């Protein structure tokens, strides 16, 4: 019975019922509306808790864990003036973050490619995690509504990883955070608004541009 329920999904573009494994929506031509049948299973996985809540919980848990693994680093003096001190407030120890999956030039050259994913969920200070999660809660719900949770996961993960690839190319030695993923969500809204057109599309585009500003 459960398997039968997963055979049909709502197309994230036109809202009509289509096969979960259809290559294109028969009504609007949207490509892979069910992500080769994986989409319904992801929706089933996240339906009880929600993508935003899960990511928020994971990020906060890892941030607190990083602080607890070396509490002395919290009170370590930091130079660079008042702004640097504020931005670095409650910063976990760099060595701890490295062990937990921080990425950057050093990690990639060391062959730790998986850090392109793990670093998305790590953060370097209280302001860092606060603002990233604030933007996540603003952007993830509309992206999920427009694209579906399966594509939301893909957009969030791929955007974050690509952001770290850019950091690697420009030679940034160490980096963490979901900023690349956040920009990916914003870009998805801009793309949807521009490609959809019409009153609804223009509304989505205008809202996305307000977020950008």
Strand and helix map with partners:
Elements: H1 2-5, E1 8-10, E2 17-19, H2 38-46, H3 51-69, H4 81-87, H5 94-100, H6 105-109, H7 115-118, H8 126-147, H9 149-169, H10 179-196, H11 198-212
Antiparallel strand pairs: 1-2
Going by CATH, the architecture would be Up-down Bundle
Regions with little confidence, pLDDT below 50 for 5+ residues: 1-6
Number of strands: 2
Compute the number of helices: 11
Q: Report the sheet with the most strands, covering strand number, pairing sense and barrel closure.
A: 2 strands, antiparallel
What share of the residues lie within helices? 55-70%
Order of helices and strands: HEEHHHHHHHHHH
Strand order of the largest sheet: 1-2
Percentage of β-strand residues = under 5%
What do these coordinates show?
It contains eleven helices and two strands, in the order H-E-E-H-H-H-H-H-H-H-H-H-H. It is mostly helical and 213 residues long. It has one domain (50-211): Up-down Bundle (Rhomboid-like fold). Strands 1-2 form a two-stranded antiparallel ribbon. A hairpin with a 6-residue loop joins strand 1 and strand 2 (17-19). The longest helix is centred in the middle third of the chain and has 22 residues, at 126-147. The termini are far apart. The model is unreliable at 1-6 (pLDDT under 50).
Features:
213 residues, mainly alpha, Rhomboid-like fold, two-stranded antiparallel ribbon, 11 helices
């Amino acid at each position: 019975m459960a398997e039968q329920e997963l055979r049909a999904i709502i197309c994230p573009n036109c809202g009509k019922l289509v096969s979960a494994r259809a290559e294109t929506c028969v009504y609007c031509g949207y490509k892979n509306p069910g992500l080769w049948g994986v989409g319904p299973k992801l929706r089933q996985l996240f339906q009880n808790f929600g993508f935003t809540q899960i990511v928020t919980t994971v990020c906060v848990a890892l941030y607190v864990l990083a602080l607890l693994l070396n509490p002395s680093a919290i009170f370590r003096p930091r130079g660079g003036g008042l702004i640097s001190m504020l931005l670095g407030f409650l910063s976990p120890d760099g060595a701890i973050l490295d062990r937990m999956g921080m990425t950057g030039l050093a990690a990639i050259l060391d062959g730790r490619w998986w850090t392109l994913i793990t670093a998305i969920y790590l953060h370097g200070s209280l302001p860092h995690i606060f603002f990233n999660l604030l933007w996540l809660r603003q952007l993830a719900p509309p992206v999920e509504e427009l694209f579906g949770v399966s594509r939301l996961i893909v957009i969030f993960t791929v955007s974050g990883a690509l952001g770290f690839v850019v950091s690697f190319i420009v030679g940034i030695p160490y980096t963490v955070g979901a900023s690349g993923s956040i920009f990916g969500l914003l870009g998805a809204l801009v793309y949807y608004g521009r490609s959809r057109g019409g009153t609804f599309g223009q509304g989505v585009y205008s809202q996305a541009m307000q977020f950008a500003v």
